[in-house]
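Researcher: Hi, I'm a grad student and pretty new to this. My advisor asked me to get structures for two proteins we've been looking at. I'm not sure of the right format, so I'll just paste the first sequence and hope you can take it from there.
Model: That works fine. Here's the first sequence with its structure tokens right after it:
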Amino acid sequence: MAYPEPLPLGTPIFASTVLAGSVAFVTGGGTGLGKAMATELARSGASIAIASRKPEHLAAGVAAIEAVGAKAIAVAVDVRDPEAISAAFDEVEQRLGAVDILINNAAGNFPQPAEDMSPGGWRAVTDIVLDGTFFCSTEFARRRIAIGGGGCILNIAATYSWTGGPGTAHSAAAKAGVVNLTQSLAVEWAPHGIRVNGLAPGLFPHEDMPAHMQHDKLAADARDRTVPAGRVGRLHELGWAATFMCSPFASYISGHTLVCDGANWLRRSLRMPEFVDVRTQFGLGTTEE
């Protein structure tokens, strides 16, 4: 028996007054998980700054927010560049007001055995996931502290932060760093009233998934059977989780990474599926060949 379906898309988790007056800066907010989280924040009253490098993603994010009757702007930014981040925050402050919610969602990933990974490939992921999260968070905190504090940060982690991710060593290591950073900054910035939390999504298929993950959308029934909950997540469920973590109802939660995955990451048992090494999974043969 699978978990029941959630309430329909469009059902707000809170009234539109709960986050009224808040300004949320969402990196990678124009596609997939980022867009879903931004949309649910908007339903609860927040104004949204969609931050991305790609014009088409910026346009898609703003359109999604405006479709639910909320206010949104597009801000071009490369989270690897601290100066660009500072300029983006300046623009948002001028157009929407001071940012009091930051969601560090921008990420990069591609599957590859570690022995085949170039230094550039490693940095392509860690620079966005870990460095970008740090740069955006410190820019946010400096500005909040300067005006008296308050606000919240939500960092998007991953469950392989705790287990490792064979085939995605760069991303798993970076996400583990994000979880640790979340804990460190929660303590450092608590005296300033800034909460810092994480959110680790499970399987949430969506149309914006990168090409190497598109196969996950094909065999829906088989995919659902891999999750203890009996189904994959729906995007607005993740949006609700993010909105709660950024809301006044989570006012005493900080330094916590919330897993939203239908118990999937805990499914290890004494009887595991037959082990298949990473190179075989990717059809690369062995290193001896």
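Researcher: Oh nice, that was easy. Here's the second one.
Model: And its structure:
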Amino acid sequence: MTRSQFLKLMATIPLTGAAMKLGYLEQATKGFSSTEKMPVLFLGHGSPMNAIEENEFVAGFRKVGSEITRPTAILCISAHWETQGTFVTAMEKPRTIHDFGGFPKALFDVQYPAPGNPELAKETKSLVSKTEVGLDEKWGLDHGAWSVIKHLYPDADVPVIQMSLDYRQNAQWHYELAKELSALRRKGVLIVGSGNMVHNLGKVAWDRLKEVGCGYD
């Protein structure tokens, strides 16, 4: 829709109240595309302590947040939410999930009260044809999401939704699903992947770390 077409449309709308006018405006602007394509970020969060410590990793996260265009919302895919099927969080106020153990109380005290975005969750669901996407009202933001996003946007003023990983599917399947989400990048949505590709600490041979030169004492 061009600017002139938009003005002509608005001129034909009957002035029967502000609510109706705004309703027509919302419908009319749905055809507008963003002028800039948002990037896609992969942020390996490392230790959960990076959420409260100062180091080169979190300095890098802050630098990225200051340099990219400010998003209208964030869609985060975290390695810490694995499900049977695919889901997106759809609540107004996602809780901060402390899904770890053995760390200082200061880390458990961290809250990241970013708002959710139920409308974005529904739009994400509608974009995906590869599988049925469920709207989740229980999960929230796990540390794979909030521990990095809090450094990008410390004021927690950018809405965040989170998408799960279907543990039954392989990497190719998820890659194809991700391509269906690309349209969100033209609508001001920043897509963030977090967690690290290798993340199963339960399979680490801790007694052999010195043998392979990892430097752990």
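Researcher: Is there anything I should tell my advisor about the second?
Model: You could mention this: Helices lie at 3-12, 18-29, 56-67, 105-108, 118-127, 143-152, 171-180.
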